[in-house]
Amino acid sequence: MSVFPENFLWGGAIAANQAEGGYLEGGKGLTTVDMIPYGDNRMPIKLGLREQVALDESEFYPSHGAIDFYHRYKEDVALLAEMGFKVFRTSIAWARIFPKGDELEPNQEGIAYYQDLFRECQKHGIEPLVTLCHFDVPMHLVNTYGSWRSREMIGFFERYARTCFEAFDGLVKYWLTFNEINILLASPFSGAGLLFKEGENKEQVKYQAAHHELVASALVTKIAHEINPANQVGCMLAGGNFYPYSCKPEDVKIALDKDRENLFFIDVQARGYYPSYAQRTFRDKGVELEIHDGDLEILKHTVDFISFSYYASRCASADMNKGNTSEANVVKSVRNPHLEASDWGWVIDPLGLRIAMNTLYDRYQKPLFLVENGLGAKDVVEANGEINDDYRIDYLRAHIKAMGEAIEDGVPLMGYTPWGCIDLVAASTGEMSKRYGFIYVDRDNKGNGTLNRSRKKSFFWYKKVIESNGEDLS
After folding, report:
1. Are strands 174-178 and 232-238 parallel, antiparallel or unpaired?
2. Which one is catalytic: 372, 382, 405, 408?
3. How far does CA 290 lie from the centroid of its chain?
4. pLDDT single digits (tens) 215-259
5. Tens digit of pLDDT for each residue in 363-394?
6. Which residues, at least 6 apart from 338, have a Cβ–Cβ distance to it below 8 Å?
7. Domains plus CATH for the chain?
8. Cβ contact 49:40 at 8 Å
9. Which class for 64: exposed (0-12), middle (13-18), buried (19 or more C-beta within 10 A)?
10. Number of alpha carbons in the 13 Å side-chain half-sphere of residue 464
11. Contact (CB, 8 A) for 147 and 153
12. CA distances (Å), 319 to each of 252, 255, 274, 329, 433, in order?
């Protein structure tokens, strides 16, 4: 018998801004991701260190065409159905529904597009799991209001979310509010559309923006339940514990601090109030939150489940800011000497997934949903057209085993949606060559290629995993 429950939701995940393309089609407006190029300027713009409020014709912007899911979704959903998907995680591009973000009426063409997409999923027996905001804020809201530094964003997000809950009622019942909400602290522009003014306290800006997002998330969770009590709403954490680099107490303390920094958002979304340690954090960082009457009451509307991504564990040292941290990700980590790493420097740690799952359930006592996990790797198309990605199968097999162990530990897990089930633009680097999918897309880092889809070896392996409900991992 499989350790996975009978109703376990096997599937995969993408995001609108990394897959759809059609960046100005169907009435869509510009978003933050549309301003982030491929190449040397990518990271400074993502981090909010370089202002980019207009497109530069000399740059290549991967999100503009992406993998053309916008036009090819029927073909792609059919391929996911062929694997036996029970669930498909995607996101709605906010700027397809409200191109500027502050309009009073939505763009009906955008609504119609997503209705068609979700109906296509349901036609194949696939439940959509939909993220409302996956790293894409309408640029008009950035330029006019300063994005989430402005309290007005709460009302704009409420209108957008309510529109989605009503327009897609009966088509979508699983919702996530903000993707990897904790990334706001590490990558402020790509995470929340934040740009900084010279000399201001960046921590003040980030945590005030975080408060606005947390209030907005709780408010729309309440609205989702009012519109349809069957709606289930989750938060979304960029997960993975920080290990102390050594047993030196200073290393243990910095690991605790880093874990708390990550879990701060989920502490609020899952428990309904600010954690006790937050007051010291705010004081040390010179942060004075502006909290309006009624905000703390709104925060009590907690999520139904905890969704999270897990790619790797991290390692923390008291000396970790001395040039010894990995540049492979926006969340800095000392390289763990006991673990192998991917081509992009992300450590491979299946046991870390089991540890993360136990940590989250011990802390929150809410069901978990692993909505991102996978190996970014360079795939080679053989002369006969085969793509033998055994390295990806090995990675996923080990992590599925770890999920099973965590379930046996007593952790309730709703489902599993490996990241980039179809190759897409990597959020971290903007590359296509950093591939995650079961389905290969013929496109290179500069946007060249036929966009033709082909099945990798992992496609057939994962189909067998789903058919056996996780029992056959051979």
Report:
1. parallel
2. 372
3. 27
4. 999 999 999 999 999 999 999 999 999 999 999 999 999 999 999
5. 999 999 999 999 999 999 999 999 999 999 99
6. none
7. 9-467 (3.20.20.80)
8. no
9. middle
10. 10
11. yes
12. 12, 12, 29, 18, 33
pLDDT, tens digit, 9 for 90 and up, residues 46-104: 988 888 778 999 999 999 999 999 999 999 999 999 999 999 999 999 999 999 999 99
CB 314 within 8 A of CB 241: yes
| Residue 423 to residue 437: CA distance in whole angstroms | 4
**Amino acid symbol at 170:** G
Under a CB-based contact definition with an 8 Å cutoff, are residues 394 and 349 in contact? no
Compute φ and ψ for 31, nearest 5 degrees: -125, 170
128: β partners: 88
Q: Cβ neighbours of residue 288 under 8 Å, at least 6 residues apart? A: 204, 282
Closest CA to 357 of 372, 371, 368, 373: 368
pLDDT at 332: 74
386 is known as an active-site residue: no
Contact 207, 287 (CB under 8 A): yes
Beta bridge partners of 307: 236, 369
Residue at token pair 């502050």 = 102
